[in-house]
Amino acid sequence: MSNADEHTGLGAYFLVYGALMVGLLATVAVSYVPLGSWNLVVALAIAFTKAILVVLIFMHVLNSPRLTWIAVSAGVIWLAIMLSLMMADYMTRSWLPTRAPADMALPSYRELVPLSDQAIQAHGHGAGEASQDKEAAHDSEE
Amino acid sequence: MSTTATLPSATAKRTPVVAHHFDDWDQQYDACVLGMWTFLVTEVMFFGGAIGVYMIYRWQYPMAFAHASNELDVWLGTFNTFILLTSSLTVALGVRYAHTGESRKVGWMLIGTIFLGAIFLGIKAYEYYTKFHHNIAPLLDLPFDWGGADPGPTKIFFGLYFGMTGIHALHMIIGVVLMAMFIPAAFRNEYRDGNSLGVEVIGLYWHFVDLVWIFLFPLLYLVDRAITAPPAL
Amino acid sequence: MSAVLEHETAPAPIVREPKNYLNVAWTVRSWLLTVDHKRIGLLYLAGITFFFLLGGAAAGIFRLELMTPQSDLVESETYNKLFTLHGIIMIFFFLVPGIPGVLGNFLIPIMIGARDMAFPKLNLMSWYLFMIGGIFTLYVTVAGGVDTGWTFYTPYSSTYSNTYVMATAVGIFITGFSSILTGLNFIVTVHKMRCPGMTWFRLPLFVWSNYATALIMVLGTPVLAITILLVALERGLKIGIFDPRLGGDPVLFQHLFWFYSHPAVYIMVLPAMGVISELVAAFSRNRVFGYKLVAFASLAIAVLGFLVWGHHMFVSGQSLYAGMVFSVLSMLIAIPSAIKVFNWTLTLWRGEVTFNTPLLYAMGFLGLFTIGGLTGLFLATLGIDVHVHDTYFVVAHFHYVMVGGTVMAYLGGIHYWWPKMTGKMYPEGWARFSAVLVFVGFNLTFFPQFILGYLGMPRRYHVYDEGFQVLNVMSTAGASILGIAYLFPITYLIWSLKYGAKAPANPWNAVGLEWMTSSPPPTENFIETPVVDFEAYEYHRHPAERHG
């Protein structure tokens, strides 16, 4: 970088500006094309391209010392850490079966300790069934 | 060398005043630029938290977010993006003129940037107004008229829309005020020696505000324009 | 040590006091508008000591309440406000700004041979932001308190609590910016302000650990800021971000909150580790064993600390698979932490150890931090955490790390550098006595809490089963001892300002740039910029390395 190129290089700014405009038109246009979930991917890809252009040229990172590169990457990496680990929770929540499969179901308390004949007589047959139903409901809640 | 925009090395004809605790100008210059970059990293994380919230809720309520997003005015958004990208160009040119010592041009570039920033904020204000007008501003128990399904998540979307664009607009206002403080110096021809540090630092800040919008615009306005069914993620 | 005693007893020679940063000006204005990092460090010392006493007083009251199983001293709402106040003040106004604000501000520029921080005015602004945040918290305390716990979990904080949540949130938001600016200043200072010859691997480990701390401050604190802002928007403007009635997810709040607040515990403990490195080396007259490992362990803790926040949410409805990942990652933190503990122990090995007060505190740190760290592994284990979650086991664990670790190191550091900061020696006998008293009081307070938690006593309740009373009485008794033990240093350190023996430039015969300038240092730290041509901790080579 000598004094000779002090007054050159303006072209690069306008070049980047042109590219940003193209990107802007492209992202608006593509957003109306139904691509399913790829709409998001394309939009973010264009946004990242625009961002990289701004960071490298407008913000002069391209010609900056290594430390600036490290700072920029630290911001991106830490953001990625936060978003990906947060998403890891939400994405995997539905993986867990909400109910155990039938062959894994543990025997209920009443199956292990059946009511004595006296108890059945005392409470009546119907009452015993009702309480068993209640138990079943309780189990499924757990 | 004109393919990449390199800043010419600050060929200060007169060395600027170095603060007492720095050894020389280079040290002061490096320290200030690194300080600004570090600050921008904190800003990335600041906006990143809000983007994280958006990400999770969009994942949970794709249809509600798609319908709500379609309520935003995509043409005003596009025009505003155009304005903000242009302001990024003007501020980049301003920094460059500060380097080459063309002080008055710096002043004009800053005025241009502030003008564009004001247009952006005006359009933003109009957009806010229409939201209030159509009763889809979920603030302060105002009436929320939403004919479609899922009014709850829709409210969250508009809450995030106001929150994120509001914080972004606040950053722009701060940037405009800071830039205005450099204009008198520019017209007093104080950058004739290429002492561009102040302009350069505020320029970085403005570019960052632009960067945030580069992501907010597609996320809030665009990504669900074509979606008719829930995304098959 | 003999050198120390000599200086204590020798009559002070009558010479005209040379100009230093303390006697250069005496006006209040010269303090409140100072940009000298050393004076700002002392301003932090004043603010932090005040908040420490306030937070300690809150703890004292609820510890008294917990002497009996019934509710007698305070009722439940007051109790909730007391532990919330204790948590908020101790974390945001003592532990986070404590060592970086006082010792970091004072020492980092001197240790790297700079004249000041990179941004002195920003440094002063950090202190003002800290104090303004503190004033909000004081206002909350006086006006009627806040009862959400320091964690501000939604929807309680955003919707239901009718206490002063907003004012507290504003206070913490502002203090957060103080923390961010301090971190920014540290990073730029360490990168750009080192004197000639001061390479990265000649930096004292205190600088390394504060640098790692600064990284966390810069990368983590903004997320706390946006989280608090979102809660404030929800509470103030009724924008429902985390509101379950709209389909919002309170667990999302917890994710964002812990993304900062777990790394924040490393903001609290990393600077303490840096202090311990200095103390152990100086009082065993050995090089820190495995200097580079200790330095990189600081960075490793800073990075890994960001990957483990989910272990606070094992029973909150977080996905089990995410829980497993977070559990495994949490275990990894033990590796750099253990590296440090082993290396400090090896530094002491075959050293010429003198048991001065700073080393007593450092030894306390080593033992207590090890207990605190290992019980952290219990808690990181998914299955065990389900049982001891939200019990006193957790309370005991983090007090072993935070009080047994950070406060011990803070006190040790204050004693070690007190001669440098004030130019006066503290009374060694009293100091040793209170160091032992702190250790005893601390263990009596918090060890019973491990047992209480293991037996199942939940935290944050003011009435409890009668079977827990004996252990609670022990804990309260310990807290009284601890409270008195903390008053000793405050008293004799203030006393020493007037009556203490005059400190020489290097009372401990230690190495490091801070001991090569006068006590107290001149305003710009050194008469002329130092040039470093020696390694860190050049006492003599470490015996373990000699034998290869």
Short structural summary:
Chain A is mostly helical and 142 residues long.
Q: What's the number of structural domains of chain B? A: 1
Quaternary structure type? heterotrimer
Main sheet specs of chain A: none
The largest sheet of chain B, given as strand count, sense and whether it forms a barrel, is:
none
Task: State the helix count of chain B.
Answer: 7
The gross shape of chain A turns out to be elongated
Structural class of chain A: mainly alpha
What is the N-to-C order of secondary-structure elements of chain B (H for helix, E for strand)? HHHHHHH
Q: Under the CATH scheme, which class of chain B?
A: Mainly Alpha
- How many runs of DSSP E, i.e. beta strands of chain A? 0
Percent helix range of chain B: 55-70%
- Gyration radius from CA atoms of chain B, angstroms: 21 Å
The CATH homologous superfamily of chain B is called: Cytochrome c oxidase, subunit III, four-helix bundle
> Which CATH-level-2 architecture of chain B?
Up-down Bundle
Largest interface, with Cβ-Cβ < 8 Å?
Answer: A-B, 58 and 61 residues
**Measured distance between first and last alpha carbons of chain A:** 71 Å
Work out the helix count of chain A. 6
Poorly predicted regions of chain A are: 1-8, 125-142
Helix/strand class of chain B: mainly alpha
